[in-house]
Write a structure and sequence with these properties.
Elements: H1 2-15, H2 25-42, E1 47-61, E2 67-81, E3 86-97, E4 101-110, E5 113-122, E6 133-134, E7 159-164
Antiparallel strand pairs: 1-2, 1-7, 2-3, 3-4, 3-6, 4-5
Amino acid sequence: MAVALVAGAAVPALAGCDPVGGLDTVAVAVTTQKQAAAVLQRDGVRVAWLSCQGRAERGGPDEHGSPRPVTAVGVDCEGRTEDGRKIIVFGTVTGISGDACVRGRLTAKVDGRTVFTASVLGDCSRASTGTPTGDGWSPPPTTTEKPGPSHHPHPSPSCSSTFRGK
């Protein structure tokens, strides 16, 4: 009897990482980590490690208790450069294409200095693995700009992915 209770209690905790329909927080965290690390490396940041967490921001039960698809995932990443500087990446992802790209609004900072703010990370014309996920709209052009007011991510207990340099 005790075993059944423990196993039953574990199911909702795992289900929180994989919402019904729409975006998957694990896929978003993994793809954001991969693409953000690649962009940082291309921008000359020597990433030692980067760990990302995703949490569903839109979705959940509707007025009748039926699950709604998740249409946005908040992402918080933290890591270090090879010389020990702090890396943070944060924002909201509204779509992914396999592991090839993420769409939304993401900002990366190294020791408080903005490295990029982007609406697309990766190559959305290349769906590398799996079926395109998310809302199915065409990707906007890649943009990089300096953000307005400073934002500091709040760690979220959720699904995560970690990149270890090189």
